[in-house]
Amino acid sequence: MFSGIVEEMATVVAIKHDQENIDFTLSCSFVDELSIDQSVAHNGVCLTVVEIKDGTYTVTAMKETLDRSNLGILKVGDKVNVERSMIMNGRLDGHIVQGHVDETAKCIAMKDADGSTYFTFEYELNKEMARKGYFTVDKGSVTVNGVSLTVCEPTDNTFTVAIIPYTRENTNFCNIEVGTVVNIEFDILGKYIARLKSFE
């Protein structure tokens, strides 16, 4: 379980393809604090640490994860938003994030807002998935590349988020431009409500 408050950006230092899986080796400041089997969110995707060596750590992404996320297009040198799992005796500064990315979205617009930036993202329109809670609502929560954000101006398949300078400088939003593919996780509460309504 995560909060969507990114700790830092890790750097991809190696990528190894193993049949349908991919092993990603990364470096970041807290490698020495990690342990094998620990969960770390990478661009919002919960992955398990499988190796720690020479100041780096390795995680494995399986085909299902690669099909639903942007991890398969990562390259050596790319910056990835990382967050370790929540400590349950602390404050929840973001929102409840599972680390189970639902799908990808594409940045279709950027607009300056007196120092902050509005980013608009578009995802595949699927009415059946929307009935299951895969949608956004105004002032609701959404996770983009692991960052907990508040939605504004949602449509059937787009939403906009406002990024303050601190967030843009300290997450890989600094590299997002029109055309960039990001991971999104819709709010789990909406999914539960949609599921309950399906029994009515």
Give a count of the beta strands, DSSP E runs of length 2 or more.
12
Q: Mean pLDDT across all residues, rounded? A: 94
Span between termini: 30 Å
Tally the structural domains.
2
CATH topology heading of the largest domain: Elongation Factor Tu (Ef-tu), domain 3
Structural class: mainly beta
Structure explained in plain terms:
This protein has two domains: 77 residues, Elongation Factor Tu (Ef-tu), domain 3; 96 residues, Elongation Factor Tu (Ef-tu), domain 3 (Beta Barrel). Strand 3 and strand 4 form a beta hairpin. The chain has a six-stranded antiparallel β-barrel with strand order 1-2-5-4-3-6. It contains four helices and twelve strands; from the N terminus they run βββββαβββαβββαβα. The chain is mainly β. Helix content is 14%, strand content 40%.
Summarize the structure.
This is Riboflavin synthase. GO terms for molecular function: riboflavin synthase activity. By secondary structure, the protein is mostly beta strands.
Topology:
Blueprint: E1 8-18, E2 21-27, E3 39-42, E4 45-53, E5 56-61, H1 63-68, E6 79-84, E7 103-113, E8 116-122, H2 127-131, E9 141-144, E10 147-150, E11 158-163, H3 165-170, E12 181-186, H4 188-197
Antiparallel strand pairs: 1-2, 1-6, 2-5, 3-4, 3-6, 4-5, 7-8, 7-12, 8-11, 9-10, 9-12
Key structural traits:
200 residues, mainly beta, Elongation Factor Tu (Ef-tu), domain 3, 2 domains, 12 strands, 14% helix
